[in-house]
Design goal:
By secondary structure, the chain is of the alpha+beta class. The protein has three helices and eleven strands. Strands 1-9-6-11-4-3-2 form a seven-stranded antiparallel sheet, covered by helices on one side. Strands 5-10-7-8 form a four-stranded antiparallel sheet, with no helix packed on it. The N terminus is likely disordered. Bound molecules: N-oxalylglycine and manganese (II) ion (MN). N-oxalylglycine (OGA) binds next to β10 and β11.
């Protein structure tokens, strides 16, 4: 794998647009967030992990209340950790750049990032929810990065973001697109798709107490 741009290879103006959007409206969508070669490497990593049986059916909630309920979400996930794969490390570095800019300009005090690959088989969905646990409000900013290179809108699989009681937006999971939103402010859902849908989804977290 070879990348022409130096690290950090996300451009300052793009990061600045995200921060401006977060300040203005609480969410942002940016296309071509990373170079095509890196998007392809991340998609390949996600598919390889799935082929090796490492992606597991996602659970709802935390701790003892944790349960697999496919009626609510049907994706398979695996958490990413530093040092597992170059592509993942480059993604984490890009998001850390964003985290530090958000902290410098919006003072959100974001301390770290946790994220996982997610693979939705055809027909899978994730019902309307908020990215917050009842017993843990550290998740502050959600970041979803899409990995399918081609995604005709007819394939479905949109992220439906509820702006308020009357308005919602459908954002297609197009490869290279990064969607960022304030975790506590936007209920959202993933609509079913006709094709396998890949993403890297995660959360910037504030300092706080872990749940007991
Ligand atoms: C989630 C989620 C959105 C998406 O994993 O919590 O809402 O578009 N994902 O994959
Ligand atoms: Mn969510």
């Amino acid at each position: 794998m070879h990348f022409d741009a130096p690290s950090p290879f996300v451009q300052g103006p793009l990061l600045q647009r995200i921060v401006d959007d977060l300040a203005d409206k609480g969410w942002s969508q940016q296309d071509a967030f990373l170079p095509d070669a890196l998007i392809a490497a991340l998609a390949q990593e996600c598919r390889a992990r799935d082929a090796a049986g490492k992606l597991a059916t996602a659970a709802i909630g935390r701790g003892e209340g944790q349960a697999v309920r496919e009626g609510i979400r049907g994706d398979r996930i695996q958490w990413i950790e530093p040092g597992q794969a170059e592509a993942c490390d480059l993604y984490l570095a890009a998001l850390d750049e964003l985290r530090r800019l958000i902290n410098r300009t919006l003072y959100l005090g974001l301390e770290d990032f946790e994220g996982h690959f997610a693979l939705y088989p055809p027909g899978a969905f994730y019902q309307k929810h908020l990215d917050r646990f009842r017993d843990d409000d550290r998740r502050s900013v959600s970041a979803v990065f899409y990995l399918n290179r081609d995604w005709p809108v007819e394939q479905g699989g949109a992220l439906r973001l509820y702006l308020d009681d009357e308005r919602s937006l459908d954002l297609a999971p197009l490869g290279g697109r990064l969607v960022i939103f304030l975790s506590g402010d936007f209920p959202h859902e993933v609509l079913p798709a006709s094709h396998e849908r890949l993403s890297l989804t995660g959360w910037f977290r504030r300092r706080g107490d872990a749940p007991r």
